[in-house]
UniProtKB/TrEMBL annotation:
Domain of life according to the entry: Bacteria
MF terms in GO: DNA binding; metal ion binding
UniProt-recorded name of the protein: Metal-sensitive transcriptional regulator
Pfam families named in the record: Trns_repr_metal
Matching PANTHER family: COPPER-SENSING TRANSCRIPTIONAL REPRESSOR RICR, TRANSCRIPTIONAL REPRESSOR FRMR-RELATED
Alphabetically ordered keywords of this record: Copper
Source organism of this protein record: Corynebacterium tapiri
DNA damage in keyword set: no
Keyword tRNA processing: no
Family indicated by similarity: Belongs to the CsoR family.
One GO process term, biological-process aspect: negative regulation of DNA-templated transcription
Length: 95
Protein backbone atom coordinates (compact mmCIF):
# COMPACT_ATOMS: atom_id res chain seq x y z
CA UNK A 1 0.00 0.00 0.00
CA UNK A 2 1.33 3.45 -0.88
CA UNK A 3 1.29 6.27 1.60
CA UNK A 4 -1.26 9.01 0.92
CA UNK A 5 -0.52 12.58 1.86
CA UNK A 6 -2.83 14.46 4.19
CA UNK A 7 -4.02 16.84 1.47
CA UNK A 8 -5.21 14.08 -0.87
CA UNK A 9 -8.83 14.45 0.26
CA UNK A 10 -8.77 18.15 -0.70
CA UNK A 11 -6.46 17.93 -3.69
CA UNK A 12 -8.94 19.58 -6.08
CA UNK A 13 -9.50 22.44 -3.64
CA UNK A 14 -5.74 23.01 -3.38
CA UNK A 15 -5.36 22.91 -7.15
CA UNK A 16 -8.19 25.43 -7.58
CA UNK A 17 -6.57 27.78 -5.07
CA UNK A 18 -3.18 27.47 -6.76
CA UNK A 19 -4.71 28.14 -10.18
CA UNK A 20 -6.29 31.31 -8.78
CA UNK A 21 -2.89 32.34 -7.44
CA UNK A 22 -1.36 31.68 -10.88
CA UNK A 23 -3.97 34.03 -12.30
CA UNK A 24 -3.08 36.68 -9.73
CA UNK A 25 0.61 36.37 -10.64
CA UNK A 26 -0.29 36.71 -14.29
CA UNK A 27 -2.22 39.83 -13.37
CA UNK A 28 0.88 41.20 -11.67
CA UNK A 29 2.87 40.66 -14.83
CA UNK A 30 0.24 42.55 -16.83
CA UNK A 31 0.21 45.36 -14.27
CA UNK A 32 3.96 45.84 -14.68
CA UNK A 33 3.73 45.58 -18.48
CA UNK A 34 0.99 48.23 -18.42
CA UNK A 35 2.96 50.54 -16.09
CA UNK A 36 0.36 50.42 -13.32
CA UNK A 37 0.77 52.52 -10.19
CA UNK A 38 3.37 51.14 -7.74
CA UNK A 39 1.00 50.95 -4.77
CA UNK A 40 -1.57 49.02 -6.80
CA UNK A 41 1.12 46.49 -7.78
CA UNK A 42 2.28 46.21 -4.18
CA UNK A 43 -1.31 45.64 -3.06
CA UNK A 44 -1.61 42.76 -5.50
CA UNK A 45 1.74 41.32 -4.37
CA UNK A 46 0.42 41.40 -0.82
CA UNK A 47 -2.72 39.55 -1.93
CA UNK A 48 -0.64 36.84 -3.65
CA UNK A 49 1.58 36.45 -0.59
CA UNK A 50 -1.47 36.14 1.63
CA UNK A 51 -3.08 33.57 -0.67
CA UNK A 52 0.10 31.47 -0.73
CA UNK A 53 0.46 31.68 3.04
CA UNK A 54 -3.13 30.50 3.44
CA UNK A 55 -2.49 27.49 1.20
CA UNK A 56 0.64 26.74 3.23
CA UNK A 57 -1.27 26.92 6.50
CA UNK A 58 -3.95 24.59 5.18
CA UNK A 59 -1.28 22.12 4.04
CA UNK A 60 0.41 22.33 7.43
CA UNK A 61 -2.89 21.62 9.17
CA UNK A 62 -3.53 18.62 6.90
CA UNK A 63 0.01 17.38 7.52
CA UNK A 64 -0.39 17.60 11.29
CA UNK A 65 -3.80 15.93 11.29
CA UNK A 66 -2.83 13.14 8.92
CA UNK A 67 0.89 12.47 8.56
CA UNK A 68 2.03 13.49 12.04
CA UNK A 69 -0.95 11.89 13.77
CA UNK A 70 -0.28 8.64 11.90
CA UNK A 71 3.40 8.75 12.87
CA UNK A 72 2.47 9.24 16.53
CA UNK A 73 0.28 6.12 16.34
CA UNK A 74 3.08 4.09 14.73
CA UNK A 75 6.14 4.76 16.89
CA UNK A 76 8.00 7.29 19.00
CA UNK A 77 10.87 7.28 16.51
CA UNK A 78 8.59 7.97 13.55
CA UNK A 79 6.80 10.68 15.53
CA UNK A 80 10.09 12.37 16.41
CA UNK A 81 11.09 12.45 12.74
CA UNK A 82 7.74 14.05 11.79
CA UNK A 83 7.98 16.58 14.63
CA UNK A 84 11.46 17.57 13.43
CA UNK A 85 10.17 17.94 9.85
CA UNK A 86 7.33 20.18 11.03
CA UNK A 87 9.69 22.27 13.12
CA UNK A 88 12.01 22.80 10.15
CA UNK A 89 9.09 23.53 7.82
CA UNK A 90 7.72 26.13 10.26
CA UNK A 91 11.13 27.80 10.43
CA UNK A 92 11.25 28.04 6.63
CA UNK A 93 7.62 29.14 6.42
CA UNK A 94 8.06 31.94 8.92
CA UNK A 95 10.99 33.61 7.11
Amino acid sequence: MTHQHGYIQDKQRYLARLKRIQGQVGGLTRMIEEDQYCIDVLTQISAVNSALKNVGLLLLDDHLRHCVAEAVKNSDEEAEIKFQEVSEALARFSR
